[in-house]
């Protein structure tokens, strides 16, 4: 019988494609990221207002079918698979070269899918620019005036918040986002936002993480260990990320607006109280800092003292600093120049916003 020799060229080409296509995709996305960083208007038009809302609608609807955090499950399986792979390599059941290649392929695809699913929102114009408000310099006099306003409104809106109120808070937060959609320059409804509890809340709380947005599944995750008085603001902050507001200061400003323009006192109190914490952090070096603390009503002071003790016992200092270092680098990589300090820039944004929109507030 005549032996037919099959050419090896086709098989070789297919093998190379199988090996290199994840890296090719990652390179294309990397180039797009570099282009996006210099073209925020283009990102806004074609991604943030074009593709992303459509993706968010589909992904959030699918992830909303289960109360489980798919983001937590994804990372648990990923870490477990990685550790299993290392063990298999160590017992010589798998070549290190193959393990390294597969791991690199997965990381390349994760990198690409992150920007595809949400990450390009980092390169859109910032919120104040999108809504046409100039961020003016805040001097000491204006800062002190706003600090007094925030203290007075925190006192005036003080109310108890409990876990039993969460359903009501979630509904009101959605309604407030809808009412403020024009002012926040967001596309509503942009899918659905079913808040989920982190599966590993106790562990993640040690890192000082209260919540996060899972971009792969367009999913809002909140730590079950957060205090009820902070729940409305943190919920609104993560919802803001789901709407494509990536910058942390912008997300804090959106949460402040959503909470403090609400007719529900629980949201208003949480909004002013959380903003107050950022103001007090900036004001702690004032010679008259304690005088400002003295302006707070006793129930508010007691809640702040309880909060301080609660998180001091809950968090691990070393783990918290490690998380801050990693997240700081992550933010700076994605064009957030001030890194983790970006959270506190909400003070400047809130002062400017309040100056332009004070008629909205009680």
Describe this structure as you would to a colleague.
The protein has helices at residues 9-37, 40-63, 70-90, 96-117, 127-130, 140-156, 166-179, 181-184, 201-205, 231-242, 248-260, 265-283, 289-293, 298-314, 317-333, 346-357, and strands spanning 196-197, 211-214, 219-222. The model has no long low-confidence stretch (mean pLDDT 91). It is globular and about 75 Å long. Helix 11 packs across helix 12. It has 2 domains: 9-122, no CATH class; 133-360, no CATH class. The protein has a 3-stranded mixed beta sheet with strand order 1-3-2. With 362 residues, the protein is mostly helical.
Strand order of the largest sheet: 1-3-2
Q: What percentage of the residues does DSSP assign to strands (E)?
A: under 5%
Structural class by secondary-structure content: mainly alpha
Mean pLDDT: 91
Number of strands: 3
Query: Secondary-structure element sequence?
Result: HHHHHHHHEHEEHHHHHHH
Whole-number tally of structural domains: 2
Distinct helical segment count: 16
> What separation lies between the terminal Cα atoms?
93 Å
Q: Uncertain regions: pLDDT < 50 for 5+ in a row?
A: none
Biggest sheet overview: 3 strands, mixed
Assign an overall shape. globular
| Rg value | 24 Å
Q: Level of helix content?
A: 55-70%
Task: Give me some keywords for this one.
362 residues; three-stranded mixed β-sheet; mainly alpha; 16 helices; single chain; globular; 3% strand
Give a short synopsis of this structure.
With 362 residues, this protein is mostly helical. Helix content is 65%, strand content 3%.
């Amino acid at each position: 019988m005549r032996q037919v020799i099959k050419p090896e060229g086709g098989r070789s080409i297919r093998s190379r494609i199988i090996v290199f296509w994840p890296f090719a995709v990652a390179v294309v996305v990397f180039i797009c990221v570099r282009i996006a960083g210099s073209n925020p208007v283009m990102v806004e038009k074609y991604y943030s207002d074009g593709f992303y809302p459509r993706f968010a609608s589909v992904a959030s609807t699918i992830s909303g079918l289960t109360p489980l955090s798919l983001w937590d499950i994804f990372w648990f399986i990923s870490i477990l698979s990685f550790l299993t792979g290392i063990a298999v390599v160590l017992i010589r059941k798998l070549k290190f070269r193959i393990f390294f290649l597969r791991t690199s392929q997965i990381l390349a695809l994760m990198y690409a899918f992150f920007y595809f699913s949400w990450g390009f929102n980092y390169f859109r114009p910032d919120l104040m620019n999108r809504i046409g408000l100039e961020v003016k310099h805040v001097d000491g006099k204006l800062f002190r005036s706003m600090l007094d306003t925030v203290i007075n409104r925190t006192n005036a809106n003080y109310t108890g918040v409990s876990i039993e109120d969460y359903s009501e808070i979630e509904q009101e937060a959605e309604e407030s986002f809808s009412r403020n959609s024009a002012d926040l320059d967001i596309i509503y409804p942009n899918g659905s936002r079913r808040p989920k509890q982190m599966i590993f809340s106790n562990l993640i709380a040690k890192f000082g993480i209260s919540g996060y947005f899972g971009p792969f599944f367009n999913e809002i995750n909140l730590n079950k260990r957060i205090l009820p008085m902070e729940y409305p603001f943190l919920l609104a902050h993560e919802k803001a990320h789901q709407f494509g507001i990536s910058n942390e200061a912008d997300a804090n400003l959106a949460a402040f607006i959503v909470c403090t323009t609400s007719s529900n006192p629980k949201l208003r109190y949480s909004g002013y109280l959380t903003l107050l914490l950022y103001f007090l952090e900036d004001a702690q070096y004032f010679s008259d800092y304690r005088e400002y603390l003295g302006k707070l009503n006793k129930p508010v002071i007691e809640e702040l003292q309880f909060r301080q003790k609660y998180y001091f016992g809950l968090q691990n200092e070393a783990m918290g600093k490690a998380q801050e270092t990693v997240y700081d680098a992550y933010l700076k990589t994605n064009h957030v120049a001030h890194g983790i300090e970006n959270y506190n820039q909400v003070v400047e944004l809130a002062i400017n916003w309040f100056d332009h929109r004070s008629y909205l507030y009680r």
